[in-house]
């Protein structure tokens, strides 16, 4: 059985931490673009995409040490609610609100590509998207498997089922963890909605070109807490090493897969899995720590 996987853990380079979904006072965020950039830089992030609603926000002459990647969040309501994250666009799309109401998902994806950018499907669980809706989004780089703001504010931040729906249809999309931050502070009965979801990208240098090339290639993993240290694939066996976690699951959108946890609830840092079903098309790894925070590899495809 041959396994195809863009394995960032086996590549040379450095790990860079970044968030690809954040809002500022240029739309409905509570902090200015400069304040948001400083917030993430102080938190140890290497890159950030500010993605205000239907607006491409840039900070002219910003002198900080964090890489800023242009972006915007685009919403359409044709046939349901869709939000798309456009990253690394060369100019604002400038789509009229009335026009967006009647645009199809593929029209947005094409428009972003024509503007030099790439597309991520945002918070499909929060958007109440069905499989009939997500299957219309082929051509996106990936899906927000975790949205921290949706999790802290509404409890619907995990979209693993939506991801699996697309993988089950052989739509090859990767998984992103993001913040979608708006408040940037602790509120009554709600924690800070920033710095809770990110991706770790493997690249030689933290430049826009290298980070975007790595993201488009799938050289990253997504996380809200745990670290994935290595993924090793032999002829038939997959071995994963992590920071201490409560469980490691080898997830498949079809029958098969396996979840592992110590019987005495002791933390674990390694798991192995040998796929046994000939019907397995892909496997992705999910790690969960003692606080319920997670990390996800991108899918490994079988032939």
Count of discrete domains: 2
| Main beta-sheet annotation | 15 strands, mixed
Q: Give the CATH superfamily of the largest domain.
A: Metal-dependent hydrolases
**What is the C-alpha radius of gyration, as a whole number of Å?**
19 Å
Quick check: average pLDDT?
Answer: 95
Structure description:
This protein is of the alpha+beta class and 303 residues long. 18% of the residues lie in helices and 31% in strands. The longest helix has 10 residues, at 33-42. The strands form two sheets. The protein has a 15-stranded mixed β-sheet that branches. Strands 11-12-15 form a three-stranded antiparallel β-sheet, with no helix packed on it. The chain folds into two domains: 8-222, Metal-dependent hydrolases (TIM Barrel, Alpha-Beta Barrel); 225-303, Immunoglobulin-like (Sandwich). The model has no long low-confidence stretch (mean pLDDT 95). The protein starts with a strand and ends with a strand. A hairpin with a 5-residue loop joins β16 (282-288) and β17.
Secondary structure layout plus pairing:
Layout (H helix, E strand, L loop, with lengths): L2 E2 L9 E6 L13 H10 L4 E4 L16 E10 L5 E6 L9 H5 L3 H10 L3 E4 L9 H4 L7 E6 H7 L5 H9 L5 E5 L19 E6 L4 H10 L2 E4 L4 E6 L4 E8 L1 E5 L6 E3 L7 E6 L8 E7 L5 E3 L3 E3 L1
Parallel strand pairs: 2-3, 3-4, 6-7, 7-8
Antiparallel strand pairs: 1-18, 2-9, 4-5, 5-6, 9-10, 10-17, 11-12, 12-15, 13-14, 13-16, 16-17, 16-18
Concise synopsis of the structure shown:
This protein is an alpha+beta fold.
